[in-house]
Amino acid sequence: MTVKAWLEMAIHDAERRGLPELKPLLEALAKATSSLRTAEWNADATGEFDSESRIPNPESRNA
Amino acid sequence: MPEPQTIAALARAIKSRETTAEAVVDRCLRRIAERNGTLNAFITVFENEAREQARDADREIAAGRYLGPLHGVPVSVKDLFDIAGTKTTAASRVRQDHSAERDAPSIAALRDAGAIFVGKTNLHEFALGTTNEDSAYGPARHPLDPSRSPGGSSGGSAASVADAMCFASMGSDTGGSIRIPAAVCGLVGLKPAIGELTTEGVVPLSTTLDHIGPICRTVEDAAIVYDALRGVSRTESRGGAARPAGAPPDPRAIRLAIPRNYFLSLLDPQVASTFESACERLRQAGVMLDDVPIPHAGDVAAIYLHIVLTEAAAYHAKTLERRPEDYTPNVRIRLEMGRYILGEDYARARRGRELIRREVNAALQDVDALLLPALPIPAPKIGVPMVKIGTAEEPVRNVMLRCTQAFNVSGHPAISIPCGATIDGLPVGAQLVGAANDTPGLLRIAAAVERYLGPGTSR
Fold this sequence. Notes:
The complex is a heterodimer. Chain A is mainly alpha-helical. Chain A has a domain at about 1-35. Chain A has three helices and no strands. Chain A has helices at about 5-15, 25-35, 60. The relative contact order of chain A is 0.10. Chain B has helices spanning about 5-15, 20-40, 45-60, 105-110, 155-160, 180-185, 220-230, 235, 260-265, 270-285, 300-320, 330-340, 345-365, 395-400, 405-410, 440-455; strands spanning about 40-45, 75-80, 115-120, 170-175, 190, 210-215, 255-260, 290, 370-375, 385-390, 390-395, 415-420, 425-435. Chain B is globular. In chain B, the strands form two sheets. An eleven-stranded mixed sheet of chain B has the order 1-3-2-4-6-5-12-13-9-7-8, with helices on both faces. Chain B has a two-stranded antiparallel sheet with strand order 10-11. Chain B is α/β, with parallel strands linked by helices. Chain B is built from 16 helices and 13 strands. Chains A and B meet through helix 1 and helix 2 of A and helix 11, helix 12 and helix 13 of B.
């Protein structure tokens, strides 16, 4: 589910539940979720982006 | 004889019988009676129980059964910890009918060490907030300026120690809730390494981010409470455990690193100048200071948010459905937000958490500790949700978590120590972050630099 689609559904559900005051918080959460999803360190099923070596690991360097 | 101000000094006085636990407890209870109406630091005061405990302590000490430096010392407890036979409210109407059957293990450890519980302190409801404003019992207030917040979520704990109502308080810290109020109130706040002290018997906020620890007046006092929480006896503690026995390390042998990117990029100007003055005092004492990057520090807030809200929502889902009106409106709505987070995004946050842990380890590789401010602003005004820093206007909550939450995410031990004050006299705190799983090492470094960090005033 895209963040845009998720946000629309979440706002709709919050309004249905009588919680319209959730809308600005969900919009702020959507921004945080977008930044999480676009972070360079995310894994990817193609294997192209899931290398653990992309994460600095001083423990393994010391080993 | 001047009244002892620290646990260490009080312990000497009690052990030598220059004073009694009963006299000290009486003084603290009188202070609570005088000031709690203004500060609202306590939800429950254990007046009779504390006096009885104090008389027992005096009898034991007179009989030669001195338990150690917490014996007879008045301590307050954040009302998130179970104390047998009392209500653990979490500052919420949701738990108004609760009664704890037994002490939390951390409370039992303090009881075994002879601590005297004077009461349970106010907090941001269910520990979900940094200002203590959202509490079923009303806001706790800052001892120096009651129109301001004492920080949070352990706000009542910090106010109680800062206002001489007790000598230490037990707090919890999920994103900074020990270190933030300690810094705001001019105290020392210790968040030990993750998983080191059990959170059993403590109402959870986020099961993988929660920590417990003390708020005290000095690093030595924090080490005394930490030792007791670990069940370390005084004899054992002389042999390399937490308590900084003897001379602290020579400051000229200490290397600290400042993670400037992100953490120092959004600071109130007076906090910035106070922190830089403290750094200069450290340099003059011979401490080596370098800068170090934590490359993805800017991702911490998003990582933290997705973990804390998801885990909190899981705990609160049933009561949010059944008794929504029993939450304060702001806390209810924030908990509801967590119910919308998708599992895939929680999993991303967990992966990001591992990245941050490794980056903090890397930053610590060649130094004794990281040094940064404990929070970017002085005590905020109660009821003011936004704060202006330079040209930026930011939510108070986001700003207050900015320097602390990374080390809940990474799990490294961290301690906030006073490093001066603004021109209005509001305390400013510095923060030291130690190597993974080495809280005793962090305490020794903290003891060595404490005197150079403070005092100092922003000019």
